[in-house]
Design brief:
It contains twelve helices and twelve strands. The protein is α/β, with parallel strands linked by helices and 392 residues long. The chain binds pyridoxal-5'-phosphate.
Amino acid sequence: MISHLSDQTYLDYAATTPLDPRVLEVMKPFFNEKFGNPSSVHRWGQQAEAAVENARDLLANFLNCSPTEIVFTSCGSESDNLALRGAAFAARQIRNANHILINPVEHHAVSFTAEQLAHVFGFELEYLPVNKHGQVTPESVRERLREDTAFVSVMYANNEIGSINPTQDIGLACKEKEIPFHTDAVQAAAHIEIDTKELNVDLMSLGAHKLYGPKGIGVLYVKQGTPLLSMQTGGGQENNLRAGTSNVAFIVGQAEAFRLAKIEQQENHDRLIPMRNEIISNVLKIIPDVQLTGHPEIRLPNHASFIFKGVDGNELLMMLDIAGFACSSGSACKTGNPEPSEVLNALGFSKEWGLGSLRVTIGKYTSEEDINRFLKILPKLISENRAMGKNK
Ligand SMILES: *Cc1c(COP(=O)(O)O)cnc(C)c1O
């Protein structure tokens, strides 16, 4: 099975997913016989251009938007970067707007870009409040919107703690004041149907590798008329918003990954939700001193995340790896001086809890037996980990 390295079990689908073999199949011809540059006039070019435009039409259809509103990028991170910088500089140039309003618990592709806009380029950065599940309310956005707000950015679903934001209503609050609204939907798109008209978004980031597509390809949805300065200049590709010869094979693969995700969404949910619930309820029941992070119900269907008091999260990941399970934690591994992730800090958890984070994310190749074996071994590893900490 794809997701197994011999006897290893992959439970880290929020980090990335294996490429669906059907996606690989549609990509293959564009690495050899259909190698043309879509910008060329001759038939090799025409063939490649047709493939790119067909992929664009497919995506536009899924997102309920016009093909001209789709910008292909190199990844979800690039989409976030283009959205934030492009919107910030355009808003400054056109209407002298200097205020940026963002969710404090974003992916680094958003949070670090916003921080750079503040520290290097002098934008005034304001963070929205979040509730204990890491969610933003439309009311708090409404209260803080100003005439000189350049843009608002709030992710659709949180990669680390799984919570889903009321994106449609946040979008509406921005729309009422005609302030551009960006959402990072890279994680959400794998599980939630996305209709750009219903969501009231002006800018939306997507990527392929969280939904069984290839790594290194993404989309930025740019609603018609949204002021945006290009960040990569050169050829006129992607509506003059992102120069560079199109990555044809990956663009084609991405569209196929989205097509399959949409068709198989319900079937995947029906399988994943009971398994996800089993993980959450068992861990909370069996292991002492544990808390679920993120919203208990309004969360991604494949996502379970916890913090354990007095546990070294990085060490736990290594113990799990040796035991045959690939999971992830919130905090990046910093040897010497480990810190809880920004997300857990923003939610107000103490270091004693925040350092013991664990994220278990399942996907279409996860089986019931995988979960059973995982739940059997986890309590043992947690008590070993806690005992090790006491002996240090
Ligand atoms: C994975 C992820 C990204 C980054 O996407 P890449 O394609 O890996 O650059 C951005 N935002 C969220 C929420 C993600 O989960």
